[in-house]
User: Which sequence fits this backbone?
């Protein structure tokens, strides 16, 4: 198993006196990141089609959207709960995993790719902070509202579809509901160690405690009214109640290593989580036909950070199947 360094060190050793962001696995932020974010795109762009800017989505709100590259299908990267788009521009690779570009620029080499900041998500900056690039929202948000924000930002920015939707962790729930509600705009799906609808039975009476911990994972931002919180039970209900997924190419990427949990996390929450995860991943595989299930050997929950090459390859595979109608 590869050993991970604390996020505190990964962001910058200069902030050693600050509080490290360590979030419960299953939805939250990475406990370890290395490398530096890719260029934000706020300066001159080589391609006039590349941009990083705030997009007016109505109701006095703006969402930060970055798009790069060319060629279809357009790939949309959706981050996990509490995560800004930064997790698609960071890498933490060690041998035997080869060095590779981060997912966002890596995908831009063969397709148009976009990612955005949901309100209240964490920027892995120096020091880490909640994003100021998207208009803050307060209160617990529904999965429907999150999926609607995705629709709004893509529509307002005139991002051409249909889309190959890539969702990490709880982001997989957002892309899943989006696909169920907008099948005509969905060309394919890639689930990156994604959250599922079938976890509760593994926790039994401890399920409410797990859900509470997902929304209050012990970051310095937990008490901030603008910090992203999700109605997890409502999200599961929304996916179950929606129409079936469209019949499109899919792929599932899954971790092989234990979740990197905060120190002191109750074992009676971690044990059922680890038991549930393989079943959750298999359920995702069974959502489609001939869906490849790729194991990121040596990676924990943040597959796109620890194994960007495999993540990029999975996206490239599904993009090819879409292009050739397989």
Assistant:
């Amino acid at each position: 198993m590869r050993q991970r360094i604390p996020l505190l060190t990964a962001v910058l050793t200069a902030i050693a006196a600050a509080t490290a962001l360590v979030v419960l696995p299953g939805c939250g932020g990475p406990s370890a990141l290395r490398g530096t974010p890719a260029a934000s795109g706020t300066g001159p762009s080589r391609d006039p089609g590349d941009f990083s800017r705030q997009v007016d989505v109505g109701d006095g709100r703006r969402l930060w959207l970055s798009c790069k590259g060319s060629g279809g299908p357009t790939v949309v990267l959706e981050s996990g709960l509490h995560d800004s788009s930064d997790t698609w521009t960071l890498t933490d690779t060690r041998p035997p995993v080869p060095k590779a570009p981060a997912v966002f620029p890596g995908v831009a080499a063969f397709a148009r790719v976009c990612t955005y900041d949901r309100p209240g998500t964490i920027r892995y900056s120096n020091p880490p902070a909640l994003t100021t690039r998207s208009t803050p929202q307060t209160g617990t948000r529904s999965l429907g509202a999150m999926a609607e924000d995705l629709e709004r930002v893509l529509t307002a920015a005139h991002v051409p579809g249909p889309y190959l939707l890539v969702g990490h962790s709880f982001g997989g729930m957002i892309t899943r509901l989006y696909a169920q509600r907008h099948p005509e705009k969905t060309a394919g799906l890639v689930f990156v160690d994604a959250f599922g609808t079938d976890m509760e039975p593994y926790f039994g009476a401890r399920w409410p405690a797990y859900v509470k911990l997902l929304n209050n994972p012990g970051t310095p931002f937990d008490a901030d009214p603008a910090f992203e919180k999700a109605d997890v039970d409502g999200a599961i209900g929304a996916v179950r109640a929606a129409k079936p997924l469209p019949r499109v190419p899919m792929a599932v990427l899954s971790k092989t290593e234990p979740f990197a949990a905060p120190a002191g996390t109750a074992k009676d929450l971690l044990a059922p989580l680890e038991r549930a995860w393989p079943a959750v991943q298999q359920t995702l595989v069974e959502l489609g036909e001939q869906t490849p299930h790729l194991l990121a050997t040596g990676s924990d929950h943040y597959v796109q950070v620890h194994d960007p090459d495999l993540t990029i390859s999975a996206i490239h595979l599904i993009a090819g199947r879409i292009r050739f109608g397989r």
Notes: The first strand starts at residue 51 and ends at 58. The longest helix spans residues 267-285.
